[in-house]
Amino acid sequence: MQRYENRRVLVTGAGSGIGRATVHRILAEGGRVFAVDVDETGLKETYAQAAAASAADRLTTALLDVSDEAAVRAGVAAATGTLGGLDVLVNAAGILRSEHTHKTTLDLFERIIAVNLTGTFLVIREALPALLDGDRPVVVNFSSTSASFAHPYMAAYAASKGGIQAMTHAIASEYSKQGLRAVCVAPGSIASGMTTGTGPGLPEDADMSLFAKLAPAIGQGFAGPETVAGVVAMLGSEDGAFITGTEIRIDGGTHF
Ligand code: NAP
């Protein structure tokens, strides 16, 4: 499939997990990608993997903190300049931090909102003028099953992802007559840096019985990030042409 020939794509969170898998999927389908992350080592690995697949000539990587307004302004300008415009924006950057709600500091709460929700907003705001000039433009945002289903110890994260869902619906309506689609994926139980890497896990005294309901019904436990990347690629292509203002849950049936 070559659904991304002549398509210009900006991917955040591209140095790890689902963002990286999305970069590789879109490159494999002929797209040109500007890939950003705060993780320099991760971005180098994303680039090395693209080079090994003989696709690095269509990939540019750059450091970008999506929670930094000035950096986002400059980063999106660099992306649209390099790509000569923009057709698809994939907002995969995010952080997961778990804590008992009664022990969550304001700093921690605000940091999670700043990266996940405000960061998604900032990148969309800066990219919108180029997207509205683009070809069949699409924004793919990252919600989470935690936005709609109860995940303990993740109140701030769930709030950030619920906000992304609501914002996505508003944007889908607001720009629908200009041909822009805005959609969320809502993953769950995906193996990535966030869920299996060095990031902070659950509180030490977490009550694991609260997770009894949170297991995939199919597969062998957590799925690989490419399972989400394939859906993101579909949504950003003409195969998703009649999908907007909604979210697609990708969790192996955890939340039937
Ligand atoms: P991941 O492997 O940790 O990838 C997220 C990437 O975003 C990391 O490289 C991370 O860098 C980067 N990042 C963090 N803060 C950033 C910032 N301020 N600016 C730019 N980049 C930043 O996790 P993932 O699972 O692939 O996550 C991708 C998206 O899926 C996230 O939005 C996540 O919330 C969502 N999601 C994942 C799951 C799952 O089961 N894995 C479920 C629901 C939703 P650092 O590693 O340095 O932090």
- The CATH architecture would be 3-Layer(aba) Sandwich
Helix content: 25-40%
CATH T-level fold name: Rossmann fold
- The first-level CATH class is given as Alpha Beta
Query: How would you describe the shape?
Result: globular
Order of neighbouring strands in the sheet with most strands = 3-2-1-4-5-6-7
Distance between the termini: 31 Å
User: What structural category do the secondary elements indicate?
Assistant: alpha/beta
Largest sheet: 7 strands, parallel
What number is the mean pLDDT?
A: 96
Please characterize this protein's 3D structure.
The protein is of the alpha/beta class and 256 residues long. It has a single domain (8-250), classed as Rossmann fold. Helices cover 40% and strands 14% of the residues. It has helices spanning 17-28, 40-52, 69-83, 106-132, 155-174, 193-196, 226-236, and strands at 8-12, 32-37, 59-63, 88-91, 138-142, 181-187, 247-250. A seven-stranded parallel beta sheet has the order 3-2-1-4-5-6-7, with helices on both faces. The longest helix has 27 residues, at 106-132. The chain starts with 7 loop residues before the first strand and ends in a 6-residue tail after the last strand. NADP nicotinamide-adenine-dinucleotide phosphate is lined by residues 12-13, 15-19, 37-39, 42, 64-67, 92-96, 115, 119, 142, 144, 187-190, 192-195, 225.
